[in-house]
Design brief:
By secondary structure, this protein is mainly α. The chain has 7 helices and 3 strands; from the N terminus they run H-H-E-H-H-E-E-H-H-H. The chain has a 3-stranded antiparallel β-sheet with strand order 1-3-2. A hairpin with a 7-residue loop joins strand 2 and strand 3. Helix 1 crosses helix 2.
């Protein structure tokens, strides 16, 4: 395997990461929320719902800052607080899917459409390779984040 090809892939991954951060900043600004608020919405969409503690650990935001973030998202109608039926002391944060579908999803639609068209140019075997690569990269990233967190 060529070291040059590995370096090129590494450079593309770093560039993609920078694009993702920039995109989050731009979309958050359009929505008049903070970029970390947008990341919390992604966590909620992926998980369906979460406690403030889960949002804190998934985003790396302190407990106090998460409470303020939830207040902002609730005020903007992106989330709602719901009492846990099994433990009424516990509050669950749920995404407001109608608001998110109306206000957030359209901002990602051009990127999703272009990416979907790109995926159509690959065979199922190639898509399996890409998906396997992404799963492994995410695991490496997750392990690295967990190590960094435990070192604090």
């Amino acid at each position: 395997m060529s070291r040059n090809k590995i370096e090129q892939i590494g450079e593309r991954l770093k560039e993609q990461s920078t694009h993702a951060v920039r995109r989050s900043n731009l979309i958050a600004a359009q929505l008049k929320i903070n970029p970390t608020d947008l990341e919390a919405l992604e966590v909620l969409l992926r998980n369906g719902k979460a406690t403030a503690g889960t949002l804190s650990s998934e985003t790396g935001i302190s407990g106090g800052a998460v409470t303020k973030m939830i207040d902002r998202l609730e005020k903007a109608d992106f989330v709602k607080r719901v009492l846990d039926k099994s433990d009424r002391r516990k509050v669950i944060i749920e995404p407001n899917l109608n608001t998110i579908q109306q206000r957030v999803f359209p901002l990602y639609a051009p990127l999703i459409a272009a990416t979907t068209e790109l995926f159509k140019t690959y065979s199922d075997q190639e898509l399996d390779i890409i998906n396997g690569f992404m799963e492994k990269i995410l695991q490496i990233s997750s392990d690295d984040l967990n190590q960094m967190t435990s070192d604090l």
